[in-house]
Amino acid sequence: MARAVTTQRKTLTTALAWGVGLLIFFPILWTILTSFKTEAQAIANPPIFLNFDWTLENYAIVQERSDYMRFLWNSVILAGGSTLLGIIIAVPAAWSMAFVPSKRTKDILLWMLSTKMLPAVGVLYPIYLLFIELGLLDSRAGLVIVLMLINLPIIVWMLYTYFREIPGEILEAARMDGATLKEELLYILTPMAIPGIASTVLLNFILAWNEAFWTLNLTAVDAAPLTAFIASYSSPEGLFFAKLSAASTMAIAPILILGWFSQKQLVRGLTFGAVK
Amino acid sequence: MATKASRSAARIMMAPAVVLLLGWMLIPLSLTVIFSFKKFLPLRGDRITDRGEGFGDFMWEYVRGFPTLDWVGFENFSRFVGSSSFWPSVWTTLVIVGGVLAITVVLGILLSLLLDQPMWGQGVVRILVIAPFFVMPTVSALVWKNMFMDPVNGLFAHLWRFFGAEPVAWLSEASMGSIVMIVSWQWLPFATLILLTAIQSLDSEQLEAAEMDGAGPLQRFGHIILPHLGRAITIVILIQTIFLLSIFAEIFVTTGGAFGTRTLTYLIFQRVLESQNVGLGSAGGVYAIILANIVAIFLMRIVGKNLDA
Question: ABC transmembrane type-1 domain: which residues (chain B) (predicted)?
Answer without folding.
Answer: 90-299
